[in-house]
């Protein structure tokens, strides 16, 4: 898995986390509203979901998401203080999670096997962003006067979250047509007709002897 890739990923996640809870909450409201575009356009355009089902599920989710976001009291709030009369954070977070979970499950039911594969491969990102928002609320950059994760206790939590997210993301990845097309045009392209040779530093003794016999 290497060292620098997960390290850079963890550093990037900490930058997102350090932006502060109020900024992160507003960002995620917009970002998660965008999943309705996936259901109504991307999945439909690729043939993974039938248009009526994709549009209906996405429309219902978007209406629910707007309501949940308005009741949360953080969206479009420049004061970085929750609006009076809004839901408490546990209720708001639970409603966000439930809405996203319902959307993913409903879309998964009506998707083709290929659509379900793509949908499952992106769940890690939704879970990571929700977990980051949760840690942000109870951490040093959150709105609480005495956060449970003060005195830099949030740092190891964010690092652990980032590493778990990185492993999940890597294991969720798979070759897509777009990736194969991009690789075909890059320096990593491999000619299927070309003979495959084992590098000398990776050749087993049997492979090495066989190659010497061929060239002798």
TrEMBL record:
Comp. bias intervals (Low complexity): 193-209
Chain residue ranges for the region called Disordered: 193-216
Tagged with keyword Transmembrane: yes
Parts of the chain that traverse the membrane: 14-41, 53-69, 89-110, 122-141, 153-170
Name under which the protein is recorded: Amino acid transporter related protein
Superkingdom of origin: Bacteria
Keyword terms of this UniProt record: Membrane, Transmembrane, Transmembrane helix
PANTHER family reported in the protein's UniProt record: ASPARTATE-PROTON SYMPORTER, PTHR47547
Keyword Transmembrane helix: yes
């Amino acid at each position: 898995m290497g060292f620098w890739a997960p390290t850079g990923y963890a550093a990037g996640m900490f930058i997102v986390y350090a932006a502060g809870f109020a900024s992160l909450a507003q960002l995620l409201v917009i970002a998660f509203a965008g999943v309705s575009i996936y259901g109504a356009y991307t999945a439909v355009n690729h043939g993974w979901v039938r248009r009526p089902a994709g549009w209906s599920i996405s429309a219902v989710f978007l209406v629910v998401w707007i309501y949940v976001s308005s009741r949360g009291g953080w969206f479009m709030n420049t004061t970085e203080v929750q609006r009076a009369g809004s839901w408490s954070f546990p209720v708001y977070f639970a409603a966000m999670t439930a809405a996203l979970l319902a959307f993913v499950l409903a879309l998964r039911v009506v998707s083709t096997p290929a659509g379900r594969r793509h949908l499952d491969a992106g769940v890690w990102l939704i879970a990571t962003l929700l977990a980051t928002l949760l840690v942000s609320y109870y951490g040093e950059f959150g709105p609480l006067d005495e956060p449970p994760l003060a005195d830099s206790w949030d740092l190891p939590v964010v690092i652990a979250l980032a590493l778990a997210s990185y492993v999940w993301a890597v294991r969720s990845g798979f070759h897509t047509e777009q990736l194969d097309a991009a690789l075909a045009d890059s320096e990593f392209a491999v000619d299927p007709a070309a003979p495959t040779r084992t590098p000398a530093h990776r050749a087993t003794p049997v492979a090495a002897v066989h190659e010497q016999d061929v060239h002798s």
